[in-house]
Amino acid sequence: MKSTSDDFSDSDRTVVSRRPKAQLPAQPFKDKDFSLNFFNLMVRTRVLEERLIKMAKSGDGFFWIGGPGEEAFNVALGLQVDKGQGVEHDFLHLHYRNNGTLLAMGSEMIDMVRQMRSVSTDPFSGGRYFVSHAAKKEWNIVPISSTIGTQFSIAPGTARAQFRARAEGKKSGVSVVVGGDAGTAEGDFATCLVWSSRPGNELPLLMIVTNNHFGISTPASTQHGEHSIADRGRAFGIETATADGNVPEKVWAALAKAFDYVREAGRPYLLELQVSRMFGHSSSTGGNRIKDEFCPIENFGKKLMKQGWLTQAEYDAAFESAWSEANAALEIVRQEEWPGSETVLVNSFANGEKAGLPGRDR
Ligand SMILES: Cc1ncc(C[n+]2csc(CCOP(=O)(O)OP(=O)(O)O)c2C)c(N)n1
To answer: Which residue's alpha carbon is nearest to atom 17 within ligand 1?
Structure first.
C-alpha cells in the first residue's frame, strides 16, 4: 500500500501506558536513542523475515509466512504491551505477521529460525507448528492460529477473565487481538464485536485489523462494501479509529491512544491500521519483493538521516549486523535435531498415554 503521509511533525504524544514510565520517554520520537532503537528493531524484523523466506526457498524450511511491511506496527505493539503472565498483564492473540512484536518484546531471532526449521528446540511448538506461529505462556501469547479470524472469537475469553478481575477490584491487563482485513469476513469477527460490547459486560479488548488490502490474491476493494472496516464497530457502540500503520510516530500514537482507552475505560476499541505487504502473501505466492510497495523502514531511515541522527553508513551497518545475527542463528539451528515421533502427541488434545506416548503436557 501507499502510506497516507510521510509527515512526522505533529504526531508525537505523551505516552501514558502501564509500562513503568521510566522505560519510555514522554515524547518517544523526539528522543534519539529511542528512535534509533525503534529503527534497529524494525531492521532486525525485516532481516529475520528475509532470512526465513530464503530458508523456505533453499530447503531449510517448508513454508514461509510473516510480516515484512508491518515493522512499524509490530515494534510499536511490542514496546507498548504490558508483558507478563496471567490476567494482571496483557494477553496477545496475534496474527501470523507479528514476529516483530516478539522481537520488540525480547524474543531472539533464533526462536523463529528454529520454528521455521521445525527443530525440537523451537520454543513455541517443539518443531510441531509452522513458522510465525508463536505461543508463549510466560508472556500471555496465546498460540497463533493459521485458521484466519479464529483469534477474534477466542480473545473475548481472556478479556472476560480480565473483566471479572476488574469487577473484583484486582489489577488487570487488557487483551489484544490482531488479524487481517480478509479475516474480518469470518463470523469470528462478528462474534468479537458482539461479545466485547454487551451492555454492562463490555470487555477490555483492543481489536486491531491490519489492512494490507489483500486476502491472499483477492483485493479488499472487491469484498468490502463498508467505507472502512473500523466503521463496523460503531454499530456496536465500540470506539474506533483508523491510522497509518507504516509510520512509527503515527502507529505509536494510535496504539497508545487505544491502549489508554481500553485500560482506563475497560471497554473495547477497534483500530484499523493500513499496512504494507512487501513480499506478497506467503511462500505459496512466491515470497518475492513487491515492486512499489511502501517500505516503512526506508521511509523512517530517511527521516532519521534528515534529522542528522543516522548516516547512510550506519543505515547499511544496521542491516549488515542484523544479517550476521540471522545467519549465525541459522548455522546453530542447522545442527539441531528434529523432534522424534515419540513426542507427536505432546501438547495436543489427544490422550497420548493410551498410545503409550507422553501425555498432554511436557
Ligand atoms: C478459516 C480459513 N479460511 C481460509 C484460509 C486460507 N487463508 C489463509 S491466509 C488467507 C487470507 C488472509 O487474509 P487477511 O485476513 O487479510 O490477512 P493477511 O494474510 O492479508 O495478513 C486465507 C483466505 C484459512 N487459513 N483459514
So the answer is: 180
